[in-house]
Design a protein that fits this description.
Polyamine Oxidase, Chain A, domain 2; five-stranded antiparallel sheet; elongated; alpha+beta; about 230 residues; FAD/NAD(P)-binding domain; single chain
């Protein structure tokens, strides 16, 4: 109730607005003002969207190192094995794990078939991000053939590739001390992303808890303020 969700209209700029509000500019040129904005973009993306942050904030955000991911979602006629997660340390294989969802979820949920994820974690500037879907597909299928002698390509019903350059923030020396605070120098603008997970690993539970803590903190700090325009999350 009283929520508007917009898709296909990227945010290009966030800046201080009138009366301590946050000005949000969209790619179609539209500009709106909000009382509070929560920006959930990866840390290195934030300085490009918020050029009026302090130099110290931008430096700390840009210093956070990330791993990206190329992940294949594969629908098969039958399972590869009976294991949910197989972590791989062999650098000769093109992916870093085999995750068989159908070992955890009944195959009836997939029409009697098997669903497998093949993730590959790598730096954001890795040349593999420039490979075509066909090139990645062939590499990954060759990897499956080398791991599972009973596997053949006739078993593949569907093969989809997804890419994301900033997924997993790497915890480096003195990481928590150097992490930028959630409240920025721009009044009303907050940054909350997976880089703020400092006492756990990147997973759904940690991400939900991070969001819940951030919302509780915002409500506590601003409950005495009269509402003005709106609140937004990007």
């Amino acid at each position: 109730e009283n929520v508007r969700i917009e898709t296909g209209n990227a945010v290009t700029n966030l800046a201080p607005g009138f009366d301590a509000q946050v000005s949000v500019t969209f790619e179609n040129g539209r500009r709106e003002l909000f009382d509070q904005v929560v920006l959930t973009a990866p840390a290195p993306v934030v300085p490009r969207l918020c050029p009026q942050l302090s130099e110290s904030e931008k430096q700390r955000l840009n210093s956070i190192q990330y791993l990206g991911i190329i992940c294949a979602s594969v629908l098969l006629k039958k399972p590869l094995a009976d294991y949910y997660v197989t972590n791989i340390t062999d650098f000769g294989l093109p992916f870093t794990a085999v995750i068989e969802m159908s070992a955890l979820v009944k195959r009836e949920q997939f029409g009697g078939n098997a669903l497998v994820y093949l993730p590959k974690y790598l730096p954001p500037d890795d040349p593999a991000f420039s490979l075509s879907d066909d090139e990645i597909t062939n590499q990954f299928l060759r990897g499956l053939e080398s791991m599972y002698p009973h596997f053949n390509r006739d078993q593949v019903l569907g093969f989809r590739i997804s890419r994301a350059r900033h997924v997993f923030a790497l915890s480096t020396l003195n990481y928590s001390q150097n992490l930028p605070p959630k409240q920025t120098s721009i009044p009303g603008l907050h940054i909350v992303n997976s880089a703020h997970i400092v006492n756990g690993t990147l997973n759904v539970n940690e991400t939900v808890q991070l969001a819940e803590r951030a919302v509780a903190s915002m409500l506590k700090n601003h409950q005495a303020q009269a509402p003005r325009a709106a609140e937004a999350v990007y």
